[in-house]
Amino acid sequence: MPTRFILVAPRHPGNIGAAARAMKAMGQRELWLVAPAVFPHALASERAVGANDLLAAATVVATLAEAVADCGLVYGTSARPRSRYYWPVASPREAAPRIVAAAAQGQAALVFGSERSGLSNADLELCHGLVHIPTDPEFGSLNLAQAVQVLAYELRTASGPSPRPARRLVPLAPVAELERLRSHLDEVLTEIDFTDRTGGPHLLRRVSRIFGRAELDQDEVGMLRGILVAMQARRRRAGGRS
Amino acid sequence: MPTRFILVAPRHPGNIGAAARAMKAMGQRELWLVAPAVFPHALASERAVGANDLLAAATVVATLAEAVADCGLVYGTSARPRSRYYWPVASPREAAPRIVAAAAQGQAALVFGSERSGLSNADLELCHGLVHIPTDPEFGSLNLAQAVQVLAYELRTASGPSPRPARRLVPLAPVAELERLRSHLDEVLTEIDFTDRTGGPHLLRRVSRIFGRAELDQDEVGMLRGILVAMQARRRRAGGRS
Questions:
Q1: Is the CB of A140 inside 8 Å of chain B's CB atoms?
Q2: Which residues of A touch B213 (CB under 8 A)?
Q3: Do B134 and A156 lie within an 8 Å CB cutoff?
């Protein structure tokens, strides 16, 4: 079930639109508005860009109690990092998996207070916990749409498959090929009498480590060996001795 | 050292302001602009809200190369989830601790492309890796300030008390040094008449990408350049002509 994003008493219609856009980019679609100052409004539509469908489908109610009546888990967002009146305060990273788990089985909600004053104590009474987005304490104010952005992003990350490295176009080179590259390089370094400023014995290992970190694919190993071959050929053509 | 946030060719001054606000809320302060369409501008200041100091201190340059010349680690943001031309694509969660670790010892940067077209291939050449913010594939477009918001948030979270990757013993090589390594390699490849089996023009770029992925430190760049010097010297001794 999608997580319900509830904006309580938003003052600026532009923020509603920007919040809808942030939600939609992260795959969220359920927007509820509790007593918005102005809605619908051209500014909301303008800032929503491609997310006007979320605005059109938004549910407008008069009180937060109505918006959360069917919710099994409700997190209120708080601009304060510390626990307030005994509510536990979670980070977005801690809260997101709990919300995702709850949303898999029933209705979960995230509640955002109004731009100026945040959530009232009466609103907080309806929440199971608070979530605080860490910010620079000297500046500290995320705007409404930015807070929606961060939490929608955390929900997406928590519900996605755990991040996997991108698939490569070419398979990685097996270790045996890397070993052949290393021997070849060793041969060339001997031919050119190269000794490391910092002392020779570790040189080859250090270069190998660079290749290791780079996670070379098969084409890349072929290309590097091609360069070594060309160096040897050219040197032999030029000098005839080595 | 603060991470440098670099906006390449931003078209809308409002986005610059919103990006500055997102940065400041997360404790970031170093904003660079590469060839902005319009800057400074009243709209930028308006959207920055309390972050006008970041706009006033922003560095404006003509090319991305100037903006990253002293950077040891550069991540470009990409709207594409898959690997592109051999660049690895990390999630914000994977990239953030690496950036935080690099920024602890030198200059690190995050690069954001222009609203319409993202980063060019020439810009990507200057990056060590790409970072993609997971979005709903059916909608998919985060605006510039939202992307800045998510990454600044991840950096803040990564620099908190959670485990961090090991500190490097030697600082990362700045991009300008990598460029010198690349030119030197180009010189040697020309001297040995090396042409890639798969077609010449991309060769140097492919090798550079390997170096980028390996995140070379200053000693390693010195060592690799030493090998190139030895190759040239030995070839000249042997042949006397090239």
A1: yes
A2: 213-215
A3: yes
Residue numbers in B near A141 (CB within 8 A)? 25, 49-50
For the stretch B149-189, pLDDT in tens is 999 999 999 987 644 444 567 888 888 888 899 899 989 88
CATH value of B4-158 in 3.40.1280.10, 3.40.190.10, 3.90.550.10, 3.30.1540.10? 3.40.1280.10
- How would you label B65-77 residue by residue, b for 16+ Cβ within 10 Å and e otherwise? bebbbebbbbbbb
Class of domain B175-239 as given by CATH: mainly alpha
Q: Model's pTM, two decimal places? A: 0.79
CA distances from A120 to A76, A126, A227, B196 (A): 10, 10, 68, 67
Cβ-Cβ contacts under 8 Å, A25 against chain B: 135-136, 139-142, 146
Domain ranges in chain B are 4-158, 175-239
ipTM: 0.75
Q: If you classify domain A4-159 with CATH, what class do you get? A: alpha beta
pLDDT digits (tens, 9 = 90+) for B40-90: 999 999 999 899 999 999 999 999 999 999 988 999 998 877 655 566 788
